[in-house]
Amino acid sequence: FLQFVFHTYTTGFTLLNGNGTVKAEEYSLQQKQILYGLGSISYAACIGALPLVFMNRYTLKSSVMQLVVKKLLPAPLLALMSAFTAAVVRSPEFENGIEVMDRNGKVVGVSQKAGEKAVKETALSRAVLFGTAFFLPAVLTYFVERAKFAKTPRALASVRMFMITSVLAGMLPVSFSMFPQCGEIKRADLEPEILSSTEETELFYNRGI
What we know:
Elements: H1 2-16, H2 29-57, H3 63-72, H4 74-89, H5 91-96, E1 98-101, E2 107-111, H6 112-147, H7 153-177, E3 182-186, H8 192-195, E4 202-206
Antiparallel strand pairs: 1-2, 3-4
């Protein structure tokens, strides 16, 4: 359930902050994105819960297995699923293309390649943000637990929550600054119809967040 809530929030954020220049005439773009979003949320929640299901199904006594399956594995899965949901929800951007502009802000065409680049950059930044924010605290909490700095389960939970909050707060600006909001793409990397419509060597697009 918590996985479902988390991915619902991040998917809603992605829907609201994607590139708004995508055009589609044959269907309702918003309806398609919502449908994609519901599917990706359900899939990501199930995959994210697999380590816990695995632990409950097969009682693993080894401390190493407990560490890997219960504490270390969920973070990479969360990073992967966060990137997956962002890519699926914003897939119309590389299916239909997004607007690219020259240095003066004049729209010179609609490019699928620019849309693909924007979605890839956003998905990667999302994976780095959530992967680091949950992987690093899990490792630190493990050492705190081994060193017995936290004497009670409540104290350990408080330490873990503090670490997650601190790492997440520190990673937010890093994630948002990995790629510029106004992305650049070389003219040579664009479609032939755009190449023939401008002499600019570099064009720009709205990446979204």
